[in-house]
Input
Amino acid sequence: MINPGFGFIVMTMITLTTGTAFIMWLGEQITERGIGNGMSLIIFTGIVIGLPKAMNEIYINVFELHKWPVWQMIIILA
Output
């Protein structure tokens, strides 16, 4: 938004706060059910979901676009 109005700013703040509260509640529910540490599982899941895309981007940058040398890929993977 170039010039967000007051309503947009308030709605954004409410949405972000509500989403954060929901994720915290969900983490507490996971912990209470005995599955594990809820917040840690949510964070871990977010990281794991992003891995395939990150690996694909590394492959494209090294082998298709030749933006990175192969040794840089090896350092990233290590």
